[in-house]
Each structure stands twice: as structure tokens, then as C-alpha cells.
UniProtKB/TrEMBL annotation, chains A, B:
Gene Ontology terms for molecular function: DNA-binding transcription factor activity; transcription cis-regulatory region binding
SUPFAM superfamilies in the record: lambda repressor-like DNA-binding domains (SSF47413), Periplasmic binding protein-like I (SSF53822)
Superkingdom field: Bacteria
InterPro entries from the UniProt entry: HTH_LacI, LacI/GalR-like_sensor, Lambda_DNA-bd_dom_sf, Peripla_BP_I
Protein name as it appears in the record: LacI family transcriptional regulator
Domain HTH lacI-type, first and last residues per copy: 37-91
PROSITE patterns linked: HTH_LACI_2 (PS50932)
Length: 368, 368
DNA sequence: CTGAAAGCGCTTACAG
DNA sequence: CTGAAAGCGCTTACAG
């Protein structure tokens, strides 16, 4: 279907080249002097009590500048770094959060993750990252493991927003913020986007082009977000008094061609398609190529979830753009606030706006 | 340059909707009974000593099946989970590794990260993820923070393989494996790909099409990997006795059009382009559109680093595909071996093969 | 097979 | 401003 011919090459060697060990690596590793310096060591060297060192590190007031200087110098000499594990044991915050997404290789989630990571770093937080592979049991296990690590809070893109494990987890003491979709069986903070309204705008745009038979194609139709988009699509058509066809649900790549062929040979052959998510859009685009139907000419297309390369496709694809970096930043900030206890209201659902990026697959022409 | 017209919408509301708190969330959180159970609690409930519980958890031999059963039941009753922080303090492995990449939003790195994450999970490891944003000082800080957390090992895509901080870090006790490129100032394990040979195959393919004037375009030319690819390009042309033009180095998006215009108006106007990395390829593609030059017809293009959507572009782009998931998996496995001490040889450099995915931008025609 | 003691490296009260 | 004591939750020797 996609036109790739892989060429093999004789030079494709898999080589493991041992490098001559010119550093004293092994010795260094075993050297006992290399053992990490502790608070005690620093205290001894600086000639003070352990508490004074601790206070200096934590910027407590009530340490004479004089002593602080001595301590700092000792710290530098020994290259001392506080042991995080010991700190956490005394009830300190771990200064870490967990992030669990379905698939890191998906552009949308990787952009969200990058933003989360950056926001966390700015606050001195480290982030655990895990991918659930769309498997609720993996998700539950990872959340568990993180909570007991422990982390100060968790950012989660829930695969199944009704899974019972969420009930237990949200009742616990670790704050949780969900990204992209809220949890349906408990009240937690969530940050998402205007799915329904976004779908409406995309479909309205197609209607504006004069299309009457608009089909909807989607994958992952069990997700609340996708359901919302489909609702938006239906609302819009109902409002315009146009016929609503049942949404074409694609489960896998193999479904695509048969389903599309059937759709186009039916007497309800559509003149426009609304793809409710990017996977559906990509599959539709591939299928249309296969079927020799030119987008923006034989058939119009508008998608939900804009992917950068949609601009590079011919013709460029019109799509609803989600503010992925904002989603990451906002959710991370909200979680950090919860952790610090700065934010004590009840759960909030934040809904971010989306915008339609009009290109050419919908039938619009490029302005020169 | 890219044709996007953002439409604003009146309904683009940013709404923060407080949800009525119908769960007893707050009470639960403060409830002291909710405090995590400890080893001691379990021991008391099971009527045994703490050690017995510890041994049961860790599957030590020498625990009578009878006692073990009682302990396990107590664990279940109290929903006990060992505190990781306490364990680590007694010198146990943390069962976590760190991964630092330049940019998580980059497809190549996000695919690598996903694979690393998965491999780690299969071994019960959790992974810290950080992005350096191509800034060596951020990279150094994150490595530091992870090492002192502590983590058992670190996977790193070094931004500057000569940065002096690497000297210190690699001399330490935490094993480090670099991905994509080795460190130049110390001997550590690394897992990368055949950059030079890959470039050669791509350029040879262009030569095979009869092109004589082949230009090379690249970004991030300070990276060893890119240098290698450029060397491969030059070797190949030298071998074919064709003129070698100086590599066009693009620093930012704004450089592209001026540089390309100049390149094409010079008397050495190329008939083919080798893009040494995906960013360069994308910029070149955009520029060619702008210049109304059709790939595979007016100009041939082959790129290093295949990106999924290259197949969806018109014409589909011919590119050297790197085994990103393997890169992630292999490096993670190698690191885990080092951590367990299973692997005690000196540092190894692993080089994975790449393959050319021939599509149409090079001038090949799609087989029907 | 089982448990009491000591300690991992830090911090929180408590006394100076 | 500073320090000695106790404890966070576990595990490693050491004795039964």
C-alpha cells in the first residue's frame, strides 16, 4: 500500500568493536575513596555538627555567614551532593513527578511530554516517564510503582477513564492530574481541549464549501475525546439539516481499504470526510491515494489534530490544531501547585481552545 | 512560507470549570489511617519479626511456607508496598535508569525513548526522562541530578561529545551508555548507526540515476554523526570522480531560502541533493516547493534519517532509515547488563546497520 | 528457619 | 546561631 521498497546492502554489518581501555576506569570504580561523601564527612572536614551542614544546604536562616563559608568550601572539596534517598526517607518531597502516556512515539504525546519535562525542570523537578501502550493494566502497574517510589504527583493520560484502579489511586494521597481527558469515575484535576467545538468548526468549514454528504472516520472510538468529536460532528450536521452517516470506525490498518472501498461504492458516497483523529486521517489519506481520489478536488478532507507534516503533504491537510505544548505546560504547573499545596480548591477541569488550520485538502486554494 | 492561515473563533473559550466535590477526597487525604503501612506494621499484624517480612518480600529462601503465607496475607490486608527510598538507603539498586535526549519532540528521539522505556519496564526498571534542548549545561545538570538521585545507570545522547563534564561523569561509578554517538574524550559504551556507509549508499543511488552535480545540505554540522555522513558523501563523489561542492550548512529556518536561492543560481547549480539529516531534508523540501522545483523531476533528493511521513509527501521521499527502536532497545539492554555486572568487558561501540528506503524523490518510479 | 541490633544519610524537633 | 538525639523504613550481618 505505501510504496516502499527496502534495499538490503552487503555492507550492513553489525559490528561490535572493543575499544582498548586507555582510562583507568576499572580501578576508579572499585576505589573506596571514590565513595560518595556524606553529610558527616562534610561536617567533620568543616569542623561543625551535621545539623549545621544540613542547614547550610537548605538555606535555612540562622547560620552565620562565617560558618556557612567553611561548610560550602568543605562541600566543594569533597564534591558532596546530598543523597536524595535519605532525604525522602525523612518525609521530604521527592521533587519528582511521574508522567504516563499511551505511546511516546506518537507526536502528540511526545510534544506534550517534552513540555511537561521542561516545565518540571524549571521547578527543579525530575520526571519519570512511562508508556502504557494503551494497556490499562500496564498503566495501573506503572502508576502503582511510581506512587510507591515515591513521587510527589502524577500526570496521566488515562487509557480507560473508567478503569476501577483509578478509584483507588485517586483516593490516595498522591495528587493526580489527567491530560487530554478527565477520569469519569472520580473527581480529579484535568486539562483537555475543546473537542466538541473543534469538531464543529472543522465540519462547518466543510459545509461552507457546499458539501452535503460528509462522512466521519475515526479510530479509538472508545475514548471520551473521540466520542466528543463525533458528537460535535453530528450536532453540526443536524443543525445544518444534512444527513448524518454512521461514523466509520477503524480498528487497524487492515480495515482501512475494505471500509473505504465500501464507503465509496455505497449510494451514500461522501463528498467530504471529517477524520476525528490523526491516525484516521493518515489512513484515509493513504487510502485515497490508493483509490486515486485527489483531496481538495474529488473529495474534501478535514482532520482533528494537526500534525506538522500535514503542511508538507500534497495537498496540505486542513486540520484542527490542539495546543499540545500548552497542554503539557498547564498540566505540569497545575500538578506542581497541588503538590506545594498552593492550590486548595476542589478539582478543576481546564479546557483549552483549539483552532482550525485551513490548508488545501478541504478545497481552499493557497493564497499566492 | 508554509501555507497556514490560522482562523480564530469566538467560541475559543478558556474555561475553568470547578467540579462539585462529590467525593470525600479531602477527608481521605488527611486521614491518618491512610498513612502508608510499613514493614513494622506488617510484622506486627502477622505476628513475626520485621526480618521475616523482609525476607518474604525478597523471596529469600529460609522462610517456612506457613509463615510466608501469614505474611503475605498481612501484606494484602494492609495494602503494603515497600518504600523504595528506604531500600535504596541500604545500598540496594534503585531499579531506575536515566535517559537524556536533546529533544523529546523530535520523532527520532521519541521513538528511541519509547523503546528504551519498554525495555526498561520489561526488567522492572523505571526511567527518568530529561531533554537537554541541545544545551550541554542543561545536559550536565540533569546527568548530575540523576546520578545523585541515585539512578543505577544513564543512557545519554550527548549534545557535545567533547564536553569536559563527561570526563568526570564517566570516571564515576554510575555506568553510562551513549546513544547515537560515542563520547570522544572517554571510553564508554555506545550504540550508534553506520553513518558514513549509509550516506554513501544514498549518494551512490543518486549517482546511479546519472546525476553529476550532487549537493549536500545539513544542519547541526558540529555533531560527529553529521560529520560522518558528510564524509561519506564526499568519499562517494571522490570515488566516482565527481565534483564535490562544499556542504550547505543551515543554522536556522531563516537561512534556508537565501541559501537555496544562491545555490540554485550559481553556475554549479545541482541536479541532486543529499540531505544529511531530517531537519535539513524538511527545509529543503519546503524551499523546493517555494521555488516551484519538483522533486524527482527537476531535482533529485535523498535524505539521511527516514521519517514516517516521508511516504506521504508528494513525491514520497527516498531516505536512509535508521533502526531507531533497535537503538533504544540495544542501548537499554547493554546498560542493564552493565548494571547487573553481567558484562565486564571493556567498553564496546556497537554500530547498527541502516538501509535505504527507495521511494520517488530520487527519480525512481513507483512500481504499479 | 527467625529475630534483635545496628546502620544507611538525612532531617525534625529539642535543648543549649 | 549550633549540636546531640531520635527516627524515617528498610536491610545486612550476627546470633540464636
Amino acid at each position: 500500500m505505501s510504496f516502499k521498497y527496502i534495499l538490503g546492502f552487503a555492507w550492513c554489518v553489525f559490528s561490535v568493536i572493543p575499544i582498548t581501555q586507555n582510562t583507568s576506569e576499572v580501578n576508579v570504580r572499585k576505589s573506596p575513596t571514590n565513595k560518595r561523601a556524606t553529610l558527616e564527612d562534610v561536617a567533620r572536614l568543616a569542623g561543625v555538627g551535621a545539623m549545621t551542614v544540613s542547614r547550610t544546604i537548605n538555606d535555612h536562616p540562622y547560620v552565620s555567614e562565617e560558618t556557612a563559608r567553611r561548610v560550602r568550601s568543605a562541600i566543594r572539596q569533597l564534591d558532596y551532593r546530598p543523597n536524595h534517598a535519605a532525604r525522602m526517607l525523612t518525609g521530604q518531597l521527592s521533587r519528582s513527578i511521574g508522567l504516563i502516556v499511551p505511546d511516546l512515539a506518537d507526536t502528540f504525546f511526545s510534544v506534550v511530554s517534552h513540555a511537561v519535562q521542561e516545565t518540571a525542570r524549571e521547578s527543579g523537578y525530575l520526571v519519570w516517564l512511562a508508556a502504557s501502550n494503551y494497556d490499562p493494566s500496564i498503566e495501573a502497574a506503572q502508576v502503582e510503582q511510581m506512587i510507591h517510589h515515591p513521587v510527589d504527583g502524577i500526570l496521566l493520560v488515562p487509557v480507560d477513564s473508567k478503569d476501577k484502579y483509578l478509584k483507588t489511586v485517586t483516593a490516595g494521597t498522591t495528587p493526580i492530574v489527567t491530560i487530554d481527558r478527565p477520569i469519569e469515575i472520580a473527581a480529579t484535576d484535568s486539562v483537555g481541549v475543546e473537542n466538541r467545538a473543534g469538531a464543529r468548526v472543522a465540519v462547518e468549514h466543510l459545509i461552507g464549501h457546499g458539501h452535503k454528504k460528509i462522512a466521519c472516520v475515526a479510530t479509538n472510538t472508545h475514548l471520551v475525546t473521540i466520542k466528543e468529536r463525533i458528537l460535535g460532528y453530528e450536532e453540526c450536521l443536524r443543525h445544518a439539516k444534512l444527513p448524518i452517516s454512521k461514523t466509520l470506525r477503524l480498528a487497524g490498518r487492515d480495515d482501512v481499504m475494505p471500509a473505504m472501498t465500501e464507503l465509496f461504492s455505497s449510494r451514500n458516497r461522501p463528498d467530504a470526510i471529517f477524520a476525528a483523529n490523526n491516525a484516521a486521517a493518515i489512513w484515509v489519506i493513504e487510502a485515497l491515494r490508493e483509490m486515486k481520489l485527489e483531496m481538495g478536488k474529488h473529495i474534501a478532507l478535514a482532520a482533528f489534530d494537526d500534525v506538522d507534516f500535514f503542511a508538507l503533504i500534497t495537498p496540505p491537510v486542513t486540520a484542527v490544531r490542539q495546543p499540545a505544548p500548552e497542554l503539557g505546560r498547564m498540566s505540569a504547573r497545575l500538578l506542581l501547585q497541588r503538590i506545594k499545596g498552593e492550590f486548595v480548591s476542589s478539582s478543576v477541569r481546564t479546557v483549552l481552545p483549539v483552532s482550525l488550520v485551513v490548508r488545501e485538502s478541504c478545497g481552499c486554494k493557497k493564497k499566492e
